[in-house]
Amino acid sequence: MGVHPTRRRTTSLLLFLCLTALPLRGAPAPGRPGGAGSTGPPGAARVDWHQTLENWKNLVAVVGTLVAGAFTYLKFFRGRTFAPRLELGVKGELLVDGEARCLLATLTLKNVGLSKVELDARVTRLEVALYERGAYEFLYANPPADGAEVVRPAYWGEPHPFRVFTPHGWVESGETIADQLLVTIPAGDYLAYRLTFVATAPETELRRTIDWTVTAIVHPKPAAETNADGAKNQEDIDDDNES
User: Fold this and answer.
1) Are residues 95 and 168 in the same domain?
2) N or C: which end of the chain has fewer CB within 10 A?
């Protein structure tokens, strides 16, 4: 099995540092015992303990720097401490006035991470899709011969994208921003509307493009209000009985 190049370079560096930290023998410095001007016997090799301690001190400092760098890498890069993190929210309200129908979408975006997150205004969008009653009726036009119930995902029409948060180029850490969009709805018999909010952070040298997505379903007719026990209010029951 081969050795990873990074590990090989690290091992070589540590070996070099250890060798440079060893005490020098046979070549005492002038003015030291055994060197020029020394009072010891001529030619005697002695240990320069002062230089040895300095070498070991430098070695400990280098090793400490390497350990601190490794800890920083594991915590901030592998641990994704400063990774972009966004929390999205979307809700819709149907506005009806006679034959006119509009869908009011309210979007929120909160930066729950520890770093600033840039937004790509070109693709940050709200997608609106419609679920027609005709699609539902077509799905169950030919039920199974055995009479078994068929449960399938709703077939949504082609989504219509709209750009949102165009004035915002980024979101600071801990900051919450909001936007609203009013969309006209064509005349027709629809069972539901789907709102999909997509926020995009552009690609950088350190990471790829990141997308966050949240979806909400809007019913064309508000459901009856319920009390704390989950039962309908008496006024709604009376309305149902009259109808």
Assistant:
1) yes
2) N
Residue 62 is part of which domain span?
5-78
Q: How many CB atoms lie within 10 A of CB 199?
A: 23
Structure tokens at 200: 């995009």
- The model's pLDDT over 110-136, given as tens digits with 9 standing for 90+, comes to 999 988 999 999 999 999 999 998 888
Q: pTM of this prediction?
A: 0.61
What single letter denotes the amino acid at residue 215?
Answer: T
| Helix 5-21 with 49-72: angle, nearest 10 deg | 160
Are 160 and 127 spatial neighbours (Cβ–Cβ below 8 Å)? yes
Q: Are 100 and 174 members of one domain?
A: yes
* 232 within a domain of the structure (yes/no): no
**95 and 67 within one domain:** no
